[in-house]
Amino acid sequence: MFSALNKSFGDLRDKKLRKALWAIALWSLGFFVVVMIALFGGLDAANFGAWAEGGAIVLGAFAFIGLFWFSFVIVAQTVAAFYLDGVVARVEEIDYPGLPPAKGTTVTEDVVSTFRFTGMLLLLNTVALPFYLIGLFVPFVSIGIFYLVNGYLFGREYAEVVILRRMEADEAAAWRKENRTKLLFAGAAIAFGMTIPLLNFMGPVIAAAFMTHIFHGTQARRDVVGSK
Fold this sequence. Notes:
Number of helices: 10
Distance between the termini: 24 Å
Number of domains: 1
């Protein structure tokens, strides 16, 4: 898994992958710029008065920071839906040039998958919220639950981005079951990266490349075992 992660960072030397990375980051930031303008424009138009307006601006700033911190991953994932199939295709082109052509996925399929993932992300983290609050007193409990929940979600989501390009749904389900432990740890690594400032801007592209290497690594080992 560490080899796959190292390869995914190495792939960022490619100009096309960097272009996708910048596109996802800038479109995501653009969304928050619009939100910020709307938020502070609304506060300014409300005309609370000098003292109240100062307090409202401070509260608005904290609200915006909180919104940015907690929802950046969701926004970036939604934007990334338009790019990830191309990212996986480019990684395969760079590192696995002998592969047969993939059937790929459509933008519509990717967007639907992303909205499904976002819904599950919000639902499961909302259900887990009481356990996160327990973490105020027992930190390791909330950390463990956070990475268990989000490791499962990210591992499954990025695995589907990669494997559904080359497998039918039943084959993909069998592959995920066979590699569920590896996907959980890979997903936890992705979730960890998504919580680190600056690294989270690169998160979707690195995660897609990471999972591409994991998938083809397991296929290569299967081929070696099958040839014996």
